[in-house]
Automatic annotation (TrEMBL):
Cofactor dependency: Ca(2+)
Keywords: Calcium, Disulfide bond, Glycosidase, Hydrolase, Membrane, Metal-binding, Signal-anchor, Transmembrane, Transmembrane helix
Protein name: alpha-1,2-Mannosidase
Gene Ontology CC terms, in alphabetical order: endoplasmic reticulum; extracellular exosome; Golgi membrane
Segments crossing the lipid bilayer: 37-57
Listed pathway(s): Protein modification; protein glycosylation
GO BP term, pick one: determination of liver left/right asymmetry
Reactions it catalyzes: N(4)-(alpha-D-Man-(1->2)-alpha-D-Man-(1->2)-alpha-D-Man-(1->3)-[alpha-D-Man-(1->2)-alpha-D-Man-(1->3)-[alpha-D-Man-(1->2)-alpha-D-Man-(1->6)]-alpha-D-Man-(1->6)]-beta-D-Man-(1->4)-beta-D-GlcNAc-(1->4)-beta-D-GlcNAc)-L-asparaginyl-[protein] (N-glucan mannose isomer 9A1,2,3B1,2,3) + 4 H2O = N(4)-(alpha-D-Man-(1->3)-[alpha-D-Man-(1->3)-[alpha-D-Man-(1->6)]-alpha-D-Man-(1->6)]-beta-D-Man-(1->4)-beta-D-GlcNAc-(1->4)-beta-D-GlcNAc)-L-asparaginyl-[protein] (N-glucan mannose isomer 5A1,2) + 4 beta-D-mannose; N(4)-(alpha-D-Man-(1->2)-alpha-D-Man-(1->2)-alpha-D-Man-(1->3)-[alpha-D-Man-(1->3)-[alpha-D-Man-(1->2)-alpha-D-Man-(1->6)]-alpha-D-Man-(1->6)]-beta-D-Man-(1->4)-beta-D-GlcNAc-(1->4)-beta-D-GlcNAc)-L-asparaginyl-[protein] (N-glucan mannose isomer 8A1,2,3B1,3) + 3 H2O = N(4)-(alpha-D-Man-(1->3)-[alpha-D-Man-(1->3)-[alpha-D-Man-(1->6)]-alpha-D-Man-(1->6)]-beta-D-Man-(1->4)-beta-D-GlcNAc-(1->4)-beta-D-GlcNAc)-L-asparaginyl-[protein] (N-glucan mannose isomer 5A1,2) + 3 beta-D-mannose
Residue ranges with Basic and acidic residues bias: 97-106, 143-158
Active site: 272 (proton donor), 405, 514 (proton donor), 539
Length: 648
């Protein structure tokens, strides 16, 4: 049907009809304009009325519309019985339809009642919950959480098994009973101290990173972020194992199996987590053969990888385990990365590639090595700070103590761990030590050899407790040093051991301070109050042990025993072992921290000092910087994924 074309109302012309209207009788086609206009007005008034009626329906009719909608939602699958569609598309109501409609309404009403009842029950439950105590509610939440976790575990097939690789030669992991009764007695005492430290942590700090032995509760530091990852458990495992404390080891293993989870929103130190956790887990795996340790080490390593996403590939100091976001400490030369941190990943990462067949770990650490090799070194020294954005050195400070120490250690140990095939690492170590000897190592007026700190072209005549580890490192690196200087380096190791022993011997407690000076008539003593503390550190004892292994000079056992007695006398409390704030005071105050490295390192080195050499022989094991021994990988016979075959 066609509609008439109308001219504007003001027009005077008679409208023409559209072509389709030409067949209408003439008198209709020629209706007068005024009549048409009136008809049109009536029609539009009628349409307006209908629209108005529709939009201004009373409220109850809206409810009806809602009810109908609800029915459609609740019973979408029931074809509406009260309305049927005629084939013409017109809506009709059947006689039977009325009956069905009533039944349908009843069903809807009963559903509505059910929903109301559900709401009331939920409300009632909420009221009851509010009446419960905080503890009751927490217990309920915990039970539900555990249930959800268990259900998830059941559904989760777990991590993919790793490819089998030949187990490296694992020898001398237990026993080591010394032939001398006196040494045996001392070793037993050290074992007892380990048990006291462990049992106290077990009782008061279980699952926390560390222990507050005075307050008798858990403790943590910012290196672990806000995490509760049982650092002491992981760090202590291998010491428990070699001491034959198998029940305790099993206890620790169970905790790790059930609780150690790295999907936590915590910003941790990449270096500390690597040396304590990955190192500890890898060693626990090699000693015990329990797969869980290897799997956990690999899971954690994956979480550390985002830290390498920097413009240079030099990792951030810290990474958030959940988000993967990394950053550096603000105090570290305007946000630089630290040599001793990014340079102390090699051993663990090479083992990760070996165990997983994944080249990524090896590639990350080799990239760091290559980048460093290309850089200019002021006076042949490595500054402690490197900016991961620009790839430039930060402040020109060099140290064999804090911030630099384990970088040099890992160069030497990379070579040893590769069965001496990684000659690039050995050469880098030799060159670095040569520059250190030239610029940092001096003899005091009193004849004590010390390692100072290089600060912008000036030597600070101060040595840190941390730098005392270098005595052991020089002795370990003596064999294989250039120009047949083996004797020289063994001697240098002995001199450092002597100096560090002096730093202990010149205190009231016979425990060493954090840093000591060789200046203005002072020899191996701390000056500043904030350098007089001892926090159960291992470095001096570590050097005694290496020197003992290489020389069997009884003085090293004697010095080790002096330290053992001092620790037992001044640091032992009923809740474990604590650091002390002033080694020059006969009445020291405690710092109330039992560091995890006390169990990982200090007690382990002491135990080894009084064991026979066939316990963890140095031909087969290389200790990481947290004293976790890793087996030598015979890379002459193995090619790591992502590496070239080793050249001898
Ligand atoms: C340990 O965590 C490691 O030995 C590290 O290399 C330096 N500091 C502590 C112990 O003092």
């Amino acid at each position: 049907m066609t509609t008439p074309t109308l001219l504007p109302l003001s027009g005077r012309r008679i409208p023409t009809l559209s072509p389709g209207a030409s067949s209408f009788p003439h008198h209709r086609a020629t209706l007068r304009l005024s009549e048409k206009f009136i008809l049109l007005l009536i029609l539009s008034a009628f349409i307006t009325l209908c629209f108005g009626a529709f939009f201004f329906l009373p409220d109850n009719s809206k409810h009806k519309r809602f009810d109908l909608g609800l029915e459609d939602v609740l019973i979408p699958h029931i074809d509406s019985p009260r309305e049927g569609k005629h084939s013409s598309g017109q809506m009709v109501i059947h006689g039977q339809g009325r009956h069905d409609e009533n039944r349908h309404r009843e069903e809807v009403a009963s559903l509505r009642d059910k929903i109301r009842a559900d709401h009331e029950r939920a409300l009632q439950e909420a009221k009851e919950k509010l009446r419960k105590s905080r503890e009751e509610l927490q217990a309920e939440i915990q039970t539900e959480k555990t249930k959800v976790m268990e259900d998830l575990k059941k559904k989760d097939p777990g991590p993919k098994p790793l490819p089998p690789v030949p187990m490296p030669k694992v020898v001398g992991v237990s026993d080591g009973e010394p032939p001398e009764p006196d040494a045996k007695e001392k070793r037993d005492k050290i074992r007892e101290m380990m048990k006291h430290a462990w049992d106290s942590y077990r009782q008061y700090g279980w699952g926390h990173n560390e222990l507050k032995p005075i307050a008798k509760k858990g403790h943590s530091t910012n290196i672990f972020g806000s995490s509760q990852m049982g650092a002491t458990i992981v760090d202590a495992l291998d010491t428990l194992y070699i001491m034959g404390l198998h029940e305790e080891f099993k206890d620790g293993q169970e905790w790790i199996e059930q609780n150690l989870d790295f999907s936590v929103n915590a910003e941790v130190s990449v270096f500390e987590v690597n040396i304590r956790f990955i190192g500890g887990l890898l060693t626990a795996y090699y000693l015990s053969g329990q797969e869980v340790f290897k799997l956990k080490a690999v899971q954690l390593a994956e979480k550390l990888l985002p830290a390498f996403n920097t413009p240079t590939g030099i990792p951030w100091a810290m990474v958030n385990l959940k988000s993967g976001v990394g950053r550096n400490w603000g105090w570290a030369s305007a946000g630089s990365s630290i040599l001793a941190e990014f340079g102390t990943l090699h051993m663990e990462f090479v083992h990760l590639t070996y165990l997983t067949g994944n080249p990524v770990y090896y590639q990350k650490v080799m990239h760091i090595r290559k980048l460093l090799a290309k850089m200019d070194r002021p006076n042949g020294l490595y500054p402690n700070y490197l900016n991961p954005r620009t790839g430039r050195w930060g402040q020109h400070h060099t140290s064999v103590g804090g911030l630099g120490d384990s970088f040099y250690e890992y160069l030497l140990k990379a070579w040893l761990m590769s069965d001496k095939t990684d000659t690039e690492a050995r050469k880098t170590y030799d060159d670095a030590i040569e520059a250190i000897e030239r610029h940092l190592i001096r003899k005091s007026n009193g004849g004590l050899t010390f390692i100072g700190e290089w600060k912008n072209g000036h030597l600070e005549r101060k040595m840190g407790h941390l730098a005392c580890f270098a005595g052991g490192m020089f002795a370990l690196g003596a064999d294989g040093s250039p120009d047949d200087k083996a004797g020289h380096y063994l001697q240098l190791g002995a001199e450092i051991a002597h100096t560090c022993h002096e730093s202990y011997d010149r205190t009231v407690l016979k425990l060493g301070p954090e840093a000591f000076k060789f200046d203005s008539g002072l020899e191996a003593v701390a000056v500043r109050q904030n350098e007089k503390y001892y926090i159960l550190r291992p470095e001096v004892i570590e050097t005694y042990w290496y020197m003992w292994r290489f020389t069997h000079d009884p003085k090293y056992r004697q010095w080790g025993w002096e330290a053992t007695q001092a620790i037992d006398k001044y640091c032992r409390v009923s809740g474990g072992f604590s650091g002390v704030k002033d080694v020059y005071s006969s009445n020291p105050t405690y710092d109330d921290v039992q560091q995890s490295f006390f169990l990982a390192e200090t007690l382990k080195y002491l135990y080894l000092l009084f064991s026979s050499d066939d316990l963890l022989p140095l031909e087969n094991w290389v200790f990481n910087t947290e004293a976790h021994p890793l087996p030598v990988l015979h890379l002459g016979n193995i090619t790591l994924p992502g590496s070239e075959p080793a050249q001898r």
